[in-house]
Fold this sequence. Notes:
29 strands; 22% strand; Rossmann fold; Tail_sheath_structural; 13 helices; alpha+beta; 4 domains; four-stranded antiparallel β-sheet; Phage tail sheath family protein
Amino acid sequence: MYNPETPGVYWRPLPSAQGPGEVRLDVPAFVGIAERGPLDKPVRVRNLREFEQHFGEPIDAGFLAYAVRAFFENEGQIAWIVRVASRDAATGAREAGATLLASATPAGPGTPYWSIRASSPGSWGNRLSVAVQPGRRTAARSVPGIRDAQRLKVTSVAGFEPDCLVRLTQGLSSQICTIADIDAASSHFSLLPSDPRRIRPWHQLLAGLDPALPIDIERLSATLIVKLDMRVIAEARDLSFVPDHPRYGPTLLALPVYPARPEHDRIAAAPFSIVIEALDDPGTALLPLMPTAQDLELEGGQDGLSSLSVSDFTGLAGSAVPTHYGLRGLATLENVAEPAILAIPDACIIPAPEIVLERLPVAAIDPCDPCGIPQLPAPLAKRPVPETPQIFSDEEIFAIQQAMVEHCESRRDRIALIDPPWTAIADKTLGIRGLETWRQLFDSNFAAFYAPWLKVVDPRDSRRTRTLPPSGHAAGQYAMSDHLGGIQFAPANRDIAWAQATSLTISDAAHGLLNRLGINVIRTGQGHAPRILGSRLMTSDAQLRDIPVRRTIILLRRAFERILRGFVFEPNAEDLRERLGLTIEIFMTGLWNQGAFAGTTAQEAFAVICDDTNNSAPDGDNGRLICDVAFAPVHPLEFVVLRIGVAGNEIETNERLMSIAGGVS
């Protein structure tokens, strides 16, 4: 048996369970107002381009797009996004839509056939228009032969495929039907499938046409051209009208599906700008669409911002009452394990004045100009007036931010970034008293407070600046710090990218006072961009006030939970405890080598105890496995002890603080 006190050579088994793999703490979750995108669905994005594909461009009514840009500008790599809006029946978010007509029906042309909607709610959909054009034209002719109402021999099968809709024409008579099967070797079309299980109501035999005479066959499909503000942004070519066809319009352009429990390694595909729904069961009447003489404008879209409320942000966190829409807002992040940072900048929303685009004046026309009369520019596209959210009161902002803190405290694996309300920094006569007052509302070692706001160049108009809450920039600084050094380094004292200035100038004396209160001040010094000059949490507990300490604990909790998954259901014996202890010891040694812990030796930096001293016989009888891990944070020089274990096939992790003189023993 292995005995560290007795010299000799010992055999010690390597742990069978794997290590935790990569544990990232640089991934934030943002909840807020966006131009477009799914409501109350967490979406993982890897860059600003992917964000804009799902959620659109920056808008005056929200800070979300600006905060996400700030995160990626400061070396961020991955973020989770949750868009919120009101669900009120009258004033809530709604998709813009229109109706596409069939070209021919028993009742005549122009019968509503398909419904098209914007891919997500919002007034942005009112700027969409759609043109319907015939799809790829393919034609053939039947070879006169025997009178077979089910099979047609044709001159060529090129360009046709099973389950395509065709128009059969013979003189003045015509029939619309579906080609079920194609025999390329013998050049035959079958109107009924050879497999009886594939027969559908729309599979019809020839009616009113003589197969002994030539029949013209034309393949039918449609191409949709989608425009935004009169500019083509997408095309859907050769859409089929047959439900079994792989390019059936309502199937190919269906509403995007976002899983309730999204996986970390799966990126949601960028949605097409519109979705299609069939208005009725097609039955036997499959019909082509009527081409549009002019673009068909979508209408009826609403942003759902005028009636936005606190509950739209907080969702159902802590409530057992279900709703028609399920989890909403912040509560949707309960199902997403990856984020380690939480920010809701739109809790402090201050809508900006709308940017009005105008054409340059046209010079007076000179009748003697040899070039002739210049062509006047086309008029600007009609842009709907966007909705404006109401400005939340301080009490409402506190309710949202308190929900953030409670969410992080209940999960114990992420930190909330708290923004000051505009009222706390806008009044120059108050100075820093507004920040002091807001800070006193919280006491948590799972929340960090950053102030003041930051001024940035608006990406939509370089002549304009916009002042933003700092949480997006702060989240990017967390990512930058992790990439450049590691979680043991404070996310501070580096130039903040995409920040021109701060909204409030804070003196050295005021900075010292705010730092003692746990407010991380952002200041602009001579010769450098704004920097975060603080790394404290909003807690009165001096032992847990440093951000790196809390983030180290979060890292270990996440890593240990992954490690323990490989030990659940194994026999609770001495061998299991030894293998678990060795696995964790190897992991802790790797972190110590990276500088994550204080101490010149591994013995000074950490200790792993998983033996009979902390696993009693009653613990084993009750299915409990306990492993104590003590480590010395880089700052300050206190020790944090994590107790991890398995109880009844459930993984548990608890923490406690202790000061140990002379190192870890």
